Structure formats: structure tokens, C-alpha cells
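USER: I would love a firmer grasp of how sequence relates to backbone shape in proteins. This is the protein in question:
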Amino acid sequence: MTGQLAFVESPVQLLNVLEWAHTRTPSGSPGTAAGGTPAPGTASDTTPAPLTVVVLSPTDPMSRGQLRRMAQLARDEGLTVHWQEARGGRGALVRTLRRLAGPLRSAERVIIGDPFSRYVQLLLTLFGPRHLTVVDDGTATMEFAAQLGRGERLVRWHRKGSLGPRELVLAPVTTLARRRLAPARGRTVEVFTSLPVEAPAGVEVTANAYAWTRARFGPPLLTGGADLVGTSLVETGVVDAGHYTRVVGELARTHGATRYFAHRRESAEKLHRIAVETGLQVVRPELPLELVARRGPVGRTIVSFPSTVVHTLPLALAGTGVKVAVCEVAPEWLRATASPRAQGFLSGVTGTAAHEVDRLTARRTPSVDRLGFG
């Protein structure tokens, strides 16, 4: 088998594929990433394996737009990128599987960004690669590593544990995919991450320091005040919308923020409410926030709720003087329908953030009269 194949469904996944490829080549060009695990002294030690990226295109316009721009950056770095309308109506799944069957069979290594994706799980049940790499697509990497280590079925942290009709139908796929995502005889598994993970035995963990991002962009021009980073916690049913908007307004007043960088999954209605009630300029980034912040201009302080950026931005902005702060999510903000695991998971994201990240503690909820450093 030859070559390497990456499946991405989000802009952040594609960014981290570029970061992974950057670490695998002495020249620093992702297009010549070394692949596999060749024996020392063989010709494949020095001969780079081609890396092809397949974009399993999502349907929402924001994700598609960012992915188009990330795909061009990847092509500029020498990678081959194929855009696959994997969700483009009736027959899309069959067409995608037919097109990918050959490349999957011949791939020495498969790189994925979301082990919870039903699409990726289905592909893994049909074709098991010899070498598998999982790159970050948010804080879900932490939950994936923990569930894999405990031998549990793969369930996103914000989902409730009960199995619905769809989950019951797909349970055999998820079970087989989980086995394919675990190391075994004849198969290696690597997790390439900027997050603190407790990987099970046999899984190789490689640190993502955002070296490609720092080499290609910046340092940024710093502005006064702060920038706020949005989250999709409301859209995923975890946090109450009213609490969220009030906290955003308080954070803006406390830190002198003028811009709100929206998450690509935030609803237009919610963003309009934030703009009207807080006076913040809502910005929909055209690229992942790590690249936007590195290119600048950016505030001297970046305030976020518990999310991946409290781990990634300190790496991407190392040496620039930008301070990152995380606002804890109080239990009172959670919706009654939120998963029982939600509070613990979000607290874990905050608690494991880098030492240089400031913790902001909300006081006097739910009215949130003041936010201070914890």
C-alpha cells in the first residue's frame, strides 16, 4: 500500500492536517510529508509519501466557505485536495463510497479529524488502514481518548447517553469503528493534538505546537482592548441563551471588548441579539481563529468560553504578547436538557488550559453582575 489519505469535515481539521504534515517533513513543506512507519535504512525512510486530502463537505455555508479557503491554503502548500459533496442529496453516500474505495484500499495511512463522525466511522468499517492518525477537531479529542481508554462506545460529550432509533441502527457501525480506532496487531494509532489527553496503552501521542501557523503567518498587529470568542454551546443545547448573552455583555464591558468572533455554528438570530444588546461588532471569520489571530490585527486580550482555543491560541500566539483568558461556565447557565456530563467536561477544559491562560469566574449568577479573575 502506498500514499496517505486524510478525511476532513471542518476547517480546523484541515488546519491540523497541515500542522501534522509540517511536522513530518524536514523541509517544512506539508506537501512532502513522510508517511507510514518504514524500517530504518530502507528507501522509504527518505522518500516522501504523497498526502491527499478529501474534503467531505458539510452543508452549512459558514463551514463550506472556511473549508474552501483552507483547501486553497493546502493546495498552496503542495497538497492534493479533492472536494467531495458527501452530503449532496440522494445517492451522495453511495457515490462517495464508490469514489473512495480504491484510494482507501491503497492508503498506507489514513488521517481523520472527527472519530465521532458517522461518515468517518462508516468508512473505517469498510476499510481498515494499517496506520491511523487522529488530529484535533476541538475538545472532543479529549473525550475520544478517554472513551477509547475505557472501552466505551463513542458518544459526543454534549449528547445524552440514551440510544435513540438512529443510534440503535448505527450501533454496529460505531462498535466496529471503535475497534478500528484502537491499536492492534498490524495497526498503529496516533493522536496528533494540542490538548492534554490521556491516551490508552499503545496509542502514540504527538504534540501539535502550531509550528506551521507560526512559520507562515504573523506576528500580528496588536490593538487595544480585548476580543471575545463565541461558542456554539447554545446551539448544541448545553447553555441557556439568555445567560449566555448576559455574560457576553458583561465580559465586553469589563474588558473593553469591541469585537465578537462568532463560531461557525452560531445562529444568525443569536448573533443579531448579541450585536443589538451588547454593541459588539460581530465578526464571522473566514478562516479558523488560530490563523485569523496570528494574521491580526488582534486584541491584547482574547476572552473565550471553555473551548479548544484556550489550548490552541496560546500556542499559535506564543511570543506575541497576547493574553488569553477563559470564562468558566457556571452550573446555573446549563439548560435542563443538557447532558449530565456537560458541567464536568467543560470544567475539565478550563482546568487543563495552559498555565498562562487566565481563569475568569462568574459571580452572582444568573444575573451575572460581575466577572473577575479566579
User: Anything to note?
Assistant: Residues 35-46, 364-374 have pLDDT under 50 and may be disordered. The two ends are 53 Å apart (CA to CA). Residues 61-76 form the longest helix (16 residues). Residues 143 and 157 are 7 Å apart (CA to CA).
